[in-house]
Amino acid sequence: MYRKLENQAAETVQAAIDKLKWDMPVEIKFEQPPNPDMGDLATNVAFQLAGNLKKSPADISLIILENLELPPLIDRAETKGPYLNFFINQTRFFQQVFKSVGEEYGQLELQDQSIILEHTSANPNGPLHIGHIRNAIIGDSLSRILRMGGYPLETQYYVNDMGRQIAMIVWGLQNLDYQLDPEKKPDVEMGKLYFQVNQTLKSNPEIKTEIDAILKTYEQEFPPQLEELFKEVVDKCLAGVMETSQRLHIHHDKFVWESRFIREGRVDAILQELAGYTQENEVLYLDLNQFGVEKELILRRSDGTSLYSTRDLAYHEEKAVKADISIDILGSDHKLALEQLSLALELVGCKKPEVI
Asked: Parallel, antiparallel, or unpaired for β 354-355 and 325-328?
């Protein structure tokens, strides 16, 4: 691009010489002035013309200046004694630079290790909070850096579409007189309903049994009417979350729905793989004391339903198979869950994720 600038400046000087009918060969070369205040390019072409024209180089430079027709990349020209100095039009120059290098400028050669990077993955029961935004920004920034580094990479959003929080909102839709405002952001509306159900649950703890029944029926039977309600809650909330993400220019390549791991039998499969390490006392759990983690990892509730951690194990097992490197962007509140997840994955011979 700099060479193009020099060529334009040289053509401009030559055009002025031709216009003046100074029919003598010259070699127009440029150098960088010692001081930025003196311009970006300087030529001493006047010295080459002085002998034939019988004029001082300073006078010749001034005459050339008066006959210049500046190209778009040159903002202005002026003389400094015998030198003719040019000042770049910075705006146009850098527009041309960015246009010429394109989006792939600086991208390294293709690497041989593929990456799945999961970030944001907020529960679809309300709008994103500052912690989610932190993870989203870090995840999206890292994905751009890794892509420029040549890594084949896919960003994923893990959608918790069958957790207890969703069952609570479904119960709210069925039992509370709450009208969602279609004019407002859907994730905000779902968050308000979720809060209202929580308040109702505090004063009426017996409701927990009804919510548990909804969750159990959904996971074990997937009845169409209930499935439609779960989908409505998740879709609306996710639409609001994506609206927020798009305002930050944050993009996900793929959305992975956790219910798929139940439907496809992947959760049952991971439990089978862990069968030699699990214990059962009303709930099915993994005792991690021998590994230095005091809190056991609950894998299945007493009513037979799975937990987020169980489905997350199946998800991470899939990522480990599909990519050479798996990266999770998590908050500090996931420290214990991450320890438990990593140990469980090691027990089934699966690579644990890199975590930020």
From this structure: parallel
State the pTM of this model: 0.74
Residues 6+ apart with CB under 8 A from 227: 218
Supply the DSSP string of 25-52, one letter for each residue. Answer: ------B--SSGGG-SEEE-HHHHHHHH
What domains are there in the chain, each with its CATH number? 2-93 (3.30.1360.70)
- Residue 8 Cα distances to 3, 25, 44, 65, 142, angstroms: 9, 18, 16, 15, 40
Return the DSSP state at 306.
B
At residue 96, the pLDDT reads 84
Kindly report which listed range (126-130, 145-149, 183-187, 294-298) carries the lowest average pLDDT score: 294-298
From the CB of residue 271, how many other CB atoms can be counted at a distance below 10 Å? 17
Other C-beta atoms lying within 10 Å of the C-beta of residue 21: 6
Q: What pLDDT, in 10s, does the model give residues 2-55?
A: 788 899 999 999 999 999 999 888 999 999 999 989 999 999 999 999 989 999
